[in-house]
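Tutorial handout. Part one gives the primary structure; part two gives the three-dimensional structure as tokens.
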Amino acid sequence: MQRKILLTLTAAATAWWRAYCDRHRRRQAIAELEAFSDRELNDIGVRRSEIDWAVHHGIWRRPLPKAKAQDRRGAHTGRAP
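Part two.
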């Protein structure tokens, strides 16, 4: 019976410690991203208002605009199709 209680307490303490470490890492990441300039944030695809979301849920990648047919054939590089 005491062993079961000890295991339960150990599991609870471990879960608390992991949650504490995760929260600390998130707060640190938010602080680092908030120190970036708007241009740097734009380079990684995050708006200043999205920092919290990006840290907690990851960065959602906006789809790139579709290339025109001639661009896909190499017209933009000066090569003939």
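Part three, for discussion. The chain has a mean pLDDT of 84. The CA atoms of residues 5 and 11 lie 10 Å apart.
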